[in-house]
């Protein structure tokens, strides 16, 4: 268990962690854009019907 082995492990873990964060961010961006889209449609309907 040398320091180089530990370093490799932490870099590996870090890249996995970053990958998970990126996937989470992508998911939230998709979710937010959908919510925003629905919100815009609702605003348009309110503007039309009022």
From TrEMBL:
Name of the molecule in the record: Uncharacterized protein
Organism lineage = Eukaryota, Viridiplantae, Streptophyta, Embryophyta, Tracheophyta
